[in-house]
Amino acid sequence: MPQQTENEYKEILRQYLEDQSEQNLYMGEAFSRKLIERDISPEEVISIHKSALKDVLPGLPSKVWHSFDFLIEMMIRYGLALKEHQSLVKRQEEMQLEMEVAAKVQETLLKTKIPAVEGMDVGYVTVPSRIMSGDYIYFVGNDKDEAGVAVADVMGKGIPAALCMSMVKFGMDSVRHSAEGPSGVLSVINRIVEKSVNDSMFVTMMYGLYDAKNSTFSYASAGHEPALHYRASENRFVELDAKGLLLGVSQDARYEEGAIVLERGDFVAIMTDGVTEARTPEGFVEKETILEIISSVKDRPAQEMAEHVFAELDRMQGFRLQDDFSLVILKKE
Amino acid sequence: MAYRSSVDIHTEWDIVAARQLGRNEAKKVGFGTVDQARITTAISELARNIYLYAGAGKIEIERLNEGGLFGIAIIASDEGPGIPDVRKVMEDGYSTSGGLGAGMPGVKRLMDDFRVDTERGKGTKITAIKWLR
Ligand SMILES: Nc1ncnc2c1ncn2[C@@H]1O[C@H](COP(=O)(O)OP(=O)(O)OP(=O)(O)O)[C@@H](O)[C@H]1O
Ligand SMILES: [Mg+2]
């Protein structure tokens, strides 16, 4: 090791042995930072100490010198543990970077465009609780009189959920939406997920199709959180649910289909459990509270509504989402 | 020009003998106390692996002189089961004592050169070299 380090150490040690002041110790502390910066291992520090002491306090009994050799032996594994730690930290940083790139890839992969449909105002928000999302929103439409929307939630979070999500996206891209209808789409996606995803992965999904020709909204659900239908004429919410098993459980699961007619001012809210199971330190946010939040902005455009609900629930959870959050609002103008 | 000597590993006590041989040779080459401790720690790890996973084998120590460059080689060999996945074994945090910096990655860090030859069912030969600076 460099002679300079040894000389510096010797000087600080000599001064400390002279007057044992806090000032000396402070210098020692500062010097230990330098040692770490210079990548000097614990066993080398003992060795530096030993040779410095040989100059400063010669004539110590030989057993004292042997004791330092013993201490060096003691420190070898500490040095190794430190090196391993440093390399693991570096690996973690690399993984973090990789994750960020993967999240960007996912963002591009899951990009979706709100379809333009006569008389229908659509808005949505989807925010992952961690770097990668297990929620998925997918729109299709003919930009005339038909719009389909899927909201899916993969159980689990992070990378496994994100990978599974790509399967769902692949399925969505290959299915013929308007010919299959909501329950048909879910059946197709179910078979894809069942085949390609392992047994411990489950996906819930709500699929809805709006037909502007007769203002009908038909829907099917694979074990997903019920959607909400706001009826303007009665000023109340009705839950929209349809029987159906989670995706990926059984090849031949069947999906019930429901349909409603949307009147002027009505809207449908489809969400994941990141919305309905929002948690504050005091416990779950009451369903009533969530309905109140949605109601309070019912006259605003769909996108503003979705953003407001997110902002409120985010605030209530101290800006730390417990779960991926997704909400779609389809509003009849 | 090389000088080679060896210790057979059958029992845990043979690990001490291998360390002793390694330390003596390291001193002869001219290594200081810190490097002596590093070399013997590497020998401990390799000898213990032989004892634990192969049952028996040997540790050879060779003093090296390559054109004026002096060094020491530890050659740990056995005819045990071999190491199935060397790549995994060389990953930090994989050894059973993970997080303590020991195991094969530790040996690699303690030494300058490190080489594993292993074959399933045939055995393992690990060569680790440290050069005198
Ligand atoms: N000579 C050998 N023959 C067969 N397998 C070996 C041999 N040496 C190591 N291994 C295998 O490689 C693995 C990793 O060895 P390594 O020394 O890195 O860690 P460890 O022995 O498991 O734990 P540690 O050494 O930290 O106490 C061992 O668990 C063992 O399975
Ligand atoms: Mg081991």
Topology overview:
The complex is a heterodimer of chains A (333) and B (133).
Chain A (H helix, E strand, L loop, with lengths): L2 H17 L2 H16 L4 H15 L5 H48 L10 E8 L7 E7 L4 E9 L3 H17 L2 H20 L6 E9 L4 E7 L4 E5 L4 E5 L16 E5 L5 E5 L1 H4 L2 E2 L2 E2 L2 H10 L5 H15 L8 E8 L1
Antiparallel strand pairs in A: 1-12, 2-3, 3-4, 4-5, 5-8, 6-7, 6-9, 9-12, 10-11
Helix pairs in contact in A: 1-2, 1-3, 3-4, 5-6
Chain B lengths: L2 E7 L2 H18 L3 H22 L2 E10 L2 E10 L7 H4 L13 H8 L2 E7 L3 E9 L2
Antiparallel strand pairs in B: 1-2, 2-3, 3-5, 4-5
Helix pairs in contact in B: 1-2, 2-4
Bound molecules: adenosine-5'-triphosphate and magnesium ion (MG).
Protein name (chain B): Anti-sigma regulatory factor
Organism (chain B): Bhargavaea beijingensis
GO molecular function, one term (chain B): kinase activity
List keywords for this structure.
heterodimer; A: 333 residues; alpha+beta; Methyltransferase, Methionine Synthase (B12-binding Domains), Chain A, domain 1; Phosphatase 2c, domain 1; five-stranded antiparallel β-sheet; 9 helices; 22% strand; elongated; B: 133 residues; Heat Shock Protein 90; 4 helices; 32% strand; binds adenosine-5'-triphosphate; binds magnesium ion
Taking the alpha carbons of the first and last residues of chain B, their distance comes to: 19 Å
- Looking at CATH, which topology of the largest domain in chain A would you report? Phosphatase 2c, domain 1
| Percent in strands of chain B | 25-35%
- The CATH class of the largest domain in chain A, by name, is Alpha Beta
The CATH level-2 architecture of the largest domain in chain A is identified as 4-Layer Sandwich
Structural class of chain A: alpha+beta
Largest interface: A-B, 21 and 17 residues
- Form type of chain B: globular
